[in-house]
Amino acid sequence: MLWTMAGTKGTLAVTLGAEMRDARKMYMPDSTVRSVAALLGVQHPTVSRWETGERKPKPEDVAAYMVVIGAPAEKREELVQMARGSTSGPMLEDQGRYAAMLEIGRTAEELVHVAPALLPGMLQTEPYARAVFTETGLAANLIDTRVAVRIGQQAALTRRNPLIYRAFIWEPVLHAQLIDDESMADQLRHLVIMGKRPNVHVHIIPMRAKWNPGWEGPFSVATFPVEDERGSQRGPVVQLENKVSALYLEDPANVELYQSDARRAEEVAISAEESAALIARVINSKELTT
C-alpha cells in the first residue's frame, strides 16, 4: 500500500489537492480559500489542507467542493473518482498519474532517475517519446496525451529555480534501435545540450559495470524541500511507471531500497564529462550511417 508518514504529504493527496486548487482557479477565479470554506460551511484551514495535500478529503467533500466552485459534472466526477481510488492503493492510471507526475515535477527539489532500458522521460525528444508510446500499442489519442504530458514535465528543468535532475543511463540505451539514426542523433544531441545546464547531470553506466538487480526496471526518486520555518517536509517518493499505470512508494523502508540502488548506479557511472564524450561518439556513429 502507499504509506503516508505523520508530518508528510502523500502523493495521491497532494495530486488531488492540486487538481482541486487548479479547478477552483479555473471555474471560480475570484474565489479564495476562505470564500469557498464559507460556502461549504467549514473552517478555512480545512479547505487549505485539502488543497495543499495535508489532508485527503472524502469523496463527498470533493463533490461538494466541486459543486460550490461551479465545476462541470465531468470534472467533478473525475476528482470524486480520484478521491475514492486514493484509498485503495498506490496505483494511478491515466488522468490521475499524469497529474501526479506533473505535481512531483512542480514541487520536487531533486529527481534522480535510473534508466536501464529507455532514455528518461525528462530528457526525451518528442519523436523519441512518441516512438516509445507507439511501440506499446496504445491508441492514437492516448499516445498524443502521454507525449504532451511527457514534454510538459520537462518544463521543470528550465523554470526559474529549476528542478535538480540526475540521470543514470545504461550505455546500451544509447544504441537501441527505437527511431531512425538521424532522429536518434538529434535525441542524443538533446541529451548533451541538457547536460550542460547547471541543474541537469547526465551520467552513463558503462556496459562493463557490474549489474545491480535493483536496475531491472526504470525508477526515479524525488526529494522535496523544507516547506516552512518549522521544518515540515514531504518525505521522498519513488516512482515506478509502466505502460498502463504508475506506482508511488513512500514507505521509508521501500524508498531506502531504491535510494540504495541509485547510489550504486552513481558509484559505477562515469563522470558527466566522460558521459558527454561517450554520447558524442555515438552521435558520430549515427551520423556516419545517414
Description:
- One of its GO terms (molecular function) is DNA binding.
- Residues 32-76 form the HTH cro/C1-type domain.
- This is XRE family transcriptional regulator.
- By secondary structure, the chain is of the alpha/beta class.
- The chain has 2 domains: 11-89, Orthogonal Bundle (434 Repressor (Amino-terminal Domain)); 94-288, Endonuclease, Chain A.
- It is 50% helix and 12% strand.
- It is built from 11 helices and 7 strands.
- The protein has helices spanning 11-27, 33-40, 44-52, 59-68, 73-85, 94-107, 126-135, 140-153, 181-195, 252-268, 272-288; strands at 91-92, 110-115, 164-170, 200-205, 219-223, 237-241, 246-249.
- It is elongated.
- It starts with 10 loop residues before the first helix and ends with a helix.
Summarize the structure.
This protein is an alpha/beta fold and 290 residues long. 50% of the residues lie in helices and 12% in strands. Helix 1 packs antiparallel against helix 5 and helix 9 (181-195) runs antiparallel to helix 11 (272-288).
